[in-house]
Amino acid sequence: MQNLPLIAAEFDLIDEILLKYGDDHSVLNACELDGYFTALVSSPTQLDIAEWFPGIWGGQNPQWQTTDEAKQLIELSVRHINTLARQLAEQRSAFTPRFEQTEHLGQTVTLAEEWCFGYLRGVAVANWSALPAVQATLLQAISDCAEQDNFELPQDLDVTAHQQRVAALAPAALALHSYWMSQR
């Protein structure tokens, strides 16, 4: 059961639980959680659930209304982090960050800001050390994307340039994973 990838309904359940218990300091949706887990799986050291689960909530676990919700989120989280670990290590072509889509002036635009927020949260929770210049540039591309305000896309958005920046994120995440795995 812990090796099965999540299906759409399970990602929806994650979104519901994160929204119900989240606040300004927590991961708020499955896209952000995906970025968070991608960074954790790519980290120089493996973290225990006791370290990474509170990181979802900004360091403090919520007051659960039922233990079933906590158990469900933990089970789904473990399955998803295991899927990401397998993809990044063994099935690299299957790795696809979980980004959102929106319509902008009649075009579909991919939004990666929340995934990037999550990734940077994972970097912080895992306490990554300084990176060499090449890898630091890759991480900076993720960081730059996290700073974009995708809630209100500007009318003059260069969609092609935006999509190119977003398209560079998965290769950056794969390269950072490879770097840290070579350091373990």
Automatic annotation (TrEMBL):
It comes from the Bacteria. SUPFAM superfamilies: YgfB-like (SSF101327). InterPro entries: YgfB-like (IPR011978), YgfB-like_sf (IPR036255). NCBIfam families: PRK10396.1, ygfB_yecA. This is UPF0149 family protein. The lineage of its organism: Bacteria, Pseudomonadati, Pseudomonadota, Gammaproteobacteria, Pseudomonadales.
